[in-house]
Amino acid sequence: MMVKEITAAPQLSQVLDDTYPLWGEGLSRRAYGAWNRAQGLTSWGRRRLSLVGLVRDGRVVTSAKRYVFDATAEGKPLKVLGIGAVFTAEAFRGQGLAEQLLEAMCEDGRATGCDVALLFSTIGMDYYARLGFTAVARTVVTLDVPRNRLGAPATLVRAAESADLPVLAEISVQYGQDASLALSRSADLIEFGVTRRRLLAGLGPSGLRSVEFFVSEEGRKAVAYVVISRGSGGVSDVFLEECGDRDPSGARVGAMLEVLAAREPAHEDRTLKAWWPETFRPPQIKIIGQAAAPEAMMARSLTGRSPQYTQAVFWQTDVF
Ligand SMILES: CC(C)(COP(=O)(O)OP(=O)(O)OC[C@H]1O[C@@H](n2cnc3c(N)ncnc32)[C@H](O)[C@@H]1OP(=O)(O)O)[C@@H](O)C(=O)NCCC(=O)NCCS
Q1: Dist. CA 303–CA 288, nearest whole Å
Q2: Predicted model pTM
Q3: Which residues line ligand 1 (CB under 6 A)?
Q4: What CATH class does 4-136+295-314 carry?
Q5: What is the pLDDT, as a whole number, of residue 265?
Q6: How buried is 284 (Cβ within 10 angstroms: 0-12 exposed, 13-18 middle, 19+ buried)?
């Protein structure tokens, strides 16, 4: 058996049928198919995302999503193999098939120039630790947007457009410069992340999820931005998926969050969850809690010693 890109329609729909009960996200089966197909049709997805698997007698027995990211580690470029949605059909579990697939993906990744494999585990760390993956610490903070007695600041906030993406990519680059690992967040990767969430919100039950993507502009140019999702981890969950600011402290993002919170003056709860780089601390915003991210981030070197990533820069939008 070899790692195979799954592209034939019957095999694609078989994988979707198999994985839908677990990862259907409240979508109909039809919408789940549309959501997956549409991700592959984005500009980033076409080049960087594929479904791979092991096939036995024409049936996909184990599958996974393969992402290829450009990244930097302490300023040096590297390629990251992202592994997501590892799944073995129930009748075939416990035979080492997922392990075979993961090893084959790593081997393929190494052969095609990837330096590191990265995944997010929802089944704890033991299984992947046995395969040589080590944990990358990642903390999610709870933010509060305190009420400003003077009212919300006079900051121009408008919906983001495609034309903003290159500027947002420039802003995003600054957070990765000193990181031990950071994705190179090109305009089309940012678009991919936002599109994936928008599609999920749009294809899902009405009112369950929403995504907002705003920029603040000065001199007709975006200088800060926020992507906020609601309902992704439960109806009341508000997640600041990513943000960026020309101001290194993040003061403009702080002002944007104040403006956005002021839209609902009667709303008591002004908290959001977020992953943020250590350097990013808008003065208006209070951190009122922190906890390990629910999905365990794990990495394995494909070229040498196991990596130790202490300052990984990884926005929630890019969790796969
Ligand atoms: C996890 C999964 C991919 C493993 O596939 P597999 O082909 O059976 O894997 P292997 O034969 O290589 O390894 C089996 C081992 O996986 C581990 N494993 C399976 N499910 C697990 C879980 N929910 N939590 C922790 N470990 C688990 C066990 O150690 C198991 O060993 P055991 O059979 O002796 O108990 C499969 O159980 C599956 O598809 N689960 C549902 C999807 C999922 O949760 N994917 C992981 C997303 S991070």
Answers
A1: 40
A2: 0.94
A3: 22, 62, 86-88, 93-99, 121-124, 127
A4: alpha beta
A5: 86
A6: middle
